[in-house]
Write a structure and sequence with these properties.
The protein is an alpha+beta fold and 212 residues long. The protein folds into two domains: 131 residues, Immunoglobulins (Immunoglobulin-like); 43 residues. It is 36% helix and 25% strand. It is built from two helices and ten strands. The strands form two sheets. Strands 3, 4, 5, 8, 9 and 10 form a six-stranded antiparallel sheet that branches. A four-stranded antiparallel sheet has the order 1-2-7-6, with no helix packed on it. It is rod-shaped and about 155 Å long. About 8% of the residues have low confidence. It is found in: Cell membrane. It holds the Pfam family V-set. It is a single-pass type I membrane protein. This is Ig-like domain-containing protein.
Length: 212
């Protein structure tokens, strides 16, 4: 158990995780196919690297957005794999080696698989990290509002406001007209009643004089 490649790698991470002796890493990680930019959710994601020294095999590590490192798999020069937990197989990943190339497959890429992936080579008690390959979902942004659409919406709002402000005034004017008409008709009816009363009184007065 103590000599397992996975345990050796974890111990090395604690002792030698910096790039010692000023050595520069020439290893590179790339997507397969290389022209892919961002993985899609649920897809089979494949990555590949070519370590400086293939005689020691290679390991794959993922760094999450919080900076935490997650060991995935160690692939020996004979293409034997050791996954996290010292397991020989994994339901989430596939690791393989062919010649100078070491491949990692994420079988079903999910949100928790997002991060930066590194290919790590162990040489003379020093860990050599490859360049990181970022694997994140595509960023989607909403389309910006055009000035023409904004201007049009402002005109529409102004017109709507104008129409809304016109209706209360029109309603008040109509109400005032109706009230005036009622007052006029009441006054006219009163005048007619007074005129009828005056005529009645006059007729009765005239009849009293003719028939004393």
């Amino acid at each position: 158990m103590a000599g397992s490649p996975a345990l050796l790698l974890l111990l090395s991470l604690g002792l030698c995780c910096t790039r010692a002796q000023g050595q520069r890493d020439a290893e590179v990680v790339w997507f397969v196919p290389r022209n892919m930019k961002n993985p899609q959710e649920g897809q089979r994601l494949e990555m590949e690297c070519s370590p400086n020294n293939v005689d020691n095999g290679a390991s794959w590590i993922r760094q999450d957005k919080d900076g935490k490192l997650h060991f995935i798999v160690y692939i020996s020069v004979l293409s034997r794999t050791t996954y996290s937990g010292n397991e020989n197989t994994s339901s989430e990943f596939e690791g393989s080696g062919q010649g100078r190339f070491y491949r990692l497959v994420v079988k079903n890429f999910r949100a928790q698989d997002q991060g930066t992936y590194f290919c790590v080579n162990y040489i003379n008690q020093v860990l050599h990290f490859s360049s990181g390959q970022r694997a994140f979902f595509p960023v989607t942004t909403e389309a910006p509002t055009t000035p023409a659409a904004t201007t049009q919406s402002r005109h529409v709002s102004k017109n709507d406001t104008s129409h809304q402000s016109l209706h209360p005034g029109t309603s008040s004017k109509n109400t005032l007209t109706i009230c005036c008409d009622i007052v006029i008709w009441i006054n006219l009816a009163g005048a007619c009643l007074l005129l009828l009363t005056a005529i009645t009184i006059t007729i009765m007065h005239c009849q009293s004089k003719l028939h004393p």
